[in-house]
């Protein structure tokens, strides 16, 4: 964790020893890196690096929290990753990303000879399903033996592939890239009456899977019982001004948006205005509940009685009587 002189949070990097040792014990030299914006009150960006375990599931390696995505911060993250995994020959490694901001220039600086790929689809299924799928397609392949370890496979009429069982290679290159025998290799393996699972790469074995998850991450106490360092708590970073004109009005709720746009919700008979529900009305005149001052009957009776006492009602007198004033 790093802070500047004013105590403002700069960046934070975490790589547990159990994850690092497990990745180095049996995972393939393949790493995917990505970043996402944090939605908390302090903002920031989460950077993460993950690998693939022997069961083709994601295996977390490390993560970091930074203020924003820049070339310098991505370079700092990749440099620590390279140091933790002790990567010396980066040309033997493959990295996958989705072209985050500053990530490509950082790769060119930290891993100049590594193989970079961009994520365009999900990883294929596990090894067993692939073998079954390839096994169903073996019926279209005709093996022609050259030596005990070399075969020429004919398929789709005029198409041919060369298979080398000793080096676990096929001219279609699927066996080399995935570590799982392709349909051409399975045709040669069946001709030799061998077990296909014995020729699968060792990264798919149960022993390798056990080595990957053998290291443990020890439990950590909650933040309420952490030891106090006596230092001033860090201040959230200044994220700077975002793109576009800043918002001045507060964010409206869902019901407010419906009222503003004059959208009538389903079952609402009051137009765009929302009906007040589950509220108790108290009269400010008499203090009783259930009505307001405008509809108060006591106020109406009092006003009527007051008007009768202040006004004189003149009635037309009958013949032979004097005018009576009431």
Automatic annotation (TrEMBL):
UniProt entry tagged with the keyword Thylakoid: no
Keywords associated with the record: DNA recombination, DNA-binding, Metal-binding, Transposition, Zinc, Zinc-finger
Alphabetical list of SUPFAM superfamilies matching this protein: Retrovirus zinc finger-like domains (SSF57756)
Keyword Acetylation: no
GO molecular function: DNA binding; transposase activity; zinc ion binding
Region (Disordered): 292-326
Biased composition (Basic and acidic residues): 316-326
GO biological process entries: DNA transposition
Pfam name, any one: MULE
Chain ranges passing through the membrane: none
UniProt domain SWIM-type: residue ranges: 151-193
Matching PANTHER family: MUTATOR TRANSPOSASE MUDRA PROTEIN, POLYPROTEIN, PUTATIVE-RELATED
Protein name (database record): SWIM-type domain-containing protein
Organism: Buddleja alternifolia
């Amino acid at each position: 964790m790093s802070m500047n002189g004013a105590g403002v949070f700069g960046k934070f990097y975490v790589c547990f020893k159990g994850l690092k040792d497990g990745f180095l014990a049996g995972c393939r030299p393949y790493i995917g890196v990505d970043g996402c914006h944090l939605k908390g009150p302090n903002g920031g960006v989460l950077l993460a690096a993950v690998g693939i375990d022997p069961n083709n599931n994601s295996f977390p390696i490390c993560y970091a929290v930074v203020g924003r995505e820049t070339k310098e911060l991505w370079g700092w993250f990749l440099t620590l990753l390279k140091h933790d995994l002790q990567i010396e020959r980066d040309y033997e490694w493959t990295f996958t990303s989705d072209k985050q901001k500053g990530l490509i220039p950082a790769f060119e600086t930290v891993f100049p000879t590594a193989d970079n790929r961009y994520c365009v689809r999900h990883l294929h299924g596990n090894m067993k399903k692939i073998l079954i799928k390839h096994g169903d397609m073996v019926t279209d392949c005709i093996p022609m033996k050259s030596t005990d370890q070399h075969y020429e496979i004919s398929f789709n009429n005029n198409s041919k592939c060369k298979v080398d069982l000793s080096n676990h290679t096929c001219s279609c290159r699927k066996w080399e890239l995935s570590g799982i025998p392709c349909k051409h290799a399975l045709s040669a393996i069946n001709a030799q009456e061998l077990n296909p699972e014995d020729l699968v790469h060792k990264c798919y074995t149960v022993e390798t899977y056990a080595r990957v998850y053998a290291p443990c991450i020890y439990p950590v106490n909650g933040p309420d019982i952490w030891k106090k360092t006596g230092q001033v708590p860090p201040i959230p970073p200044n994220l700077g001004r975002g793109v576009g004109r800043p918002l001045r009005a507060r964010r409206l709720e869902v019901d407010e948006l419906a009222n503003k746009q004059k959208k009538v919700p389903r079952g609402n008979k009051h137009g765009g205005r929302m009906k007040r529900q589950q509220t108790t009305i108290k009269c400010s005149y008499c203090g009783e509940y259930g009505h307001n001052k405008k509809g108060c009957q006591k106020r109406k009776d009092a006003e009527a009685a007051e008007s009768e006492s202040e006004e004189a009602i003149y009635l037309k007198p009958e013949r032979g009587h004097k005018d009576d004033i009431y």
